[in-house]
Amino acid sequence: MKSGIIGIGFDMDDTLYRDPFGVPALARRALEKIALENVNAQSDSDLLELIRRGPEAWLRQHMLAENVGHNWIPTQEVWVEYCRRFVESISHSSCSNEMAARLREEWQKLGPPGRGSFRPRLSRGCYDMLWELRARGYRLGLCTNRLYDPSPVLERDSILGVFHCVVHSSVPGYEKPSPYLLLRFSDRVEANPSRCVYVGDRLDVDVMAAQRAGMIPVWASWNCSGVEDPPNSLLVAETPEDMLSMFP
């Protein structure tokens, strides 16, 4: 094992998995179901910004005000209010309870509102890479900024058993780049954080979380495009197979 590394943690979205649709496409499909006007006039970047500044900002403040725990899951009432704020940010007019409830219903058929699909796709090469790392004796974990437990997705793709632990949260103060999830992972695999690696695609989220936790960051660039060059000191895995070269 490289330099006494015991644990290797992984990010989920855009690292081990890719969403075949993306948040804007899912939002657009749900909005079209309720026949909201002007939805097609919004670009993907516009929709993402509307989600970030509208319902996501509200949800973040709601979680902080309610002092929710790390595994908090929104109620249906919370999702209805989330959808109401999204419609109002697009239409610039009030949204009825009925319309907000209809949007919540349609959106949740696809995935949690404002988030990815319930059925992301495992990235090419990750299945074999994960099982090989486990066979080599590394203790693996998944640390993801998700509101819902991703274990059913992992089980569907026959990789749940590869992980020693799965930790998740999308609550402010617990989600990455906070080191909270990564430190829970190192505790669960009974390894000092300095003997753990964390692998993810976001320099401002995953790499920062690893540094804050005292772990070795590895930037997974295999699903990235149009991202600025990372610091020269950063370990970079351009393909899942590179992980096997780094950690023999």
The unreliable regions are none
The CATH homologous superfamily of the largest domain corresponds to HAD superfamily/HAD-like
Strand content: 5-15%
Q: What is the CATH class of the largest domain?
A: Alpha Beta
| Strand order in the largest sheet | 5-4-1-6-7-8
> Secondary-structure element order, as H and E?
EEHHHHEHEHEHEHEEH
Distance between the termini: 6 Å
Q: Within the CATH hierarchy, at the fold level, what is the topology of the largest domain?
A: Rossmann fold
Short description:
The chain has helices at 23-33, 44-66, 76-91, 97-107, 126-135, 151-156, 180-188, 203-213, 240-246; strands at residues 7-10, 17-18, 121-122, 139-144, 165-168, 196-200, 216-220, 235-237. By secondary structure, it is an alpha/beta fold.
Key features of this structure:
12% strand; 248 residues; 9 helices; 2 domains; alpha/beta; 8 strands
Topology (elements, then pairings):
Layout: E1 7-10, E2 17-18, H1 23-33, H2 44-66, H3 76-91, H4 97-107, E3 121-122, H5 126-135, E4 139-144, H6 151-156, E5 165-168, H7 180-188, E6 196-200, H8 203-213, E7 216-220, E8 235-237, H9 240-246
Parallel strand pairs: 1-4, 1-6, 4-5, 6-7, 7-8
Antiparallel strand pairs: 2-3
Helix pairs in contact: 1-2, 1-4, 2-3, 3-4, 5-9
